[in-house]
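pinned: reference chain
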Amino acid sequence: MKSIFLTLLVATFTLASCQSNKKPDGGFSLKGKINGADGKTYVLAKVDNRRLAGIDTATVESGVVEFSGKLDYPQQLYIVELGQQRPVMMFFGENGDMTFEGEVDSLAVVEVEGSEANKVFNEYNESMKKYQEQNQQLMQKYQQAQASHDQKAIEEVYKEYDDMMAQKNEDAKKIITENPKSPVSLYLVQSDFMMNGYDELNEVFSVLDTSLAVIPGYTEIKDYLDIMANVQEGKVAPDFTVPTIDGKEMTLSSLKGKYVLLDFWASWCKPCIAEIPFMQKAYKTYKPKGFVIFSVSVDRDEAAWKKAVNDHQMTWLQGHDTQDISHSLYGVMSIPTTLLLDKDGVIIAKNLRGEALEAKLKELMK
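pinned: its structure tokens
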């Protein structure tokens, strides 16, 4: 699937003015020793509205760099070398005294001391090392299988990967369960489970202590779950109206009385394009029996959307999501996302891929 969920870290961020090294009342100090970094200037930043916002700026002198500030709650902090785009270090900071030590070219593996949240984060990172190694091994196996056109070996790699991810999620759940009040657990729910479907996300989110509600991410997940609860199988698909490719408008509920495949896609999404031949086949076979497809593009580029529709001969209903209904009403985090609706507009299946769509229609239209 192609993710359309916008995560953190854009290339530019707001710089903070250089502060004194004195810790504010109730705030934090971060003192680091960075070998080989004399003269380099670093920015300590936090996430603000999906961008990095500087908290403090400091220059390394005699191998030492010191930051200070005050946080509203324990959270992810980043250290970025001034003039660069990518953070060299990420950790969980909180008010109090924190320290770290490392080499200039390997700050990503440095552990920050003095933060209870960061202890949990370090535990998580340690437990994930084995999966990083397994992932590299599986990538090598996949490349070898692909080079030799060994489909059976490719499928075996897929299965091994799914098994690995299932175990990785179990390890993450264990840390969340053992640390329900830690902001790290909230971070893990966001980073590891947002794409895993409503049931699993709801399960892990329910473990979190409500004291974490002071962190914006908690409310974001809660709101997302509220949206997803309305688009589960057995629910009537939320109604909406979007402009069509011919300049008119189409309302979903106007299609009641037919079986509808609601398809969220984009011209730039290769997995979406790969599904088109299967949709074409199903549409040709079952259109005479009351089946329609309503493809709603999330493209920002209207011309690219229209060109793709024409190039790929998508001869069914085409709408353009100009008001983000895909996310605000349907909680779409990745594309393609499809929902099969019965004649009453009730969701009866989701994300039927490949031949599975036609098989389901055959079952419904005996």
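why pinned: The two ends are 31 Å apart (CA to CA). Residues 1-12 have pLDDT under 50 and may be disordered.
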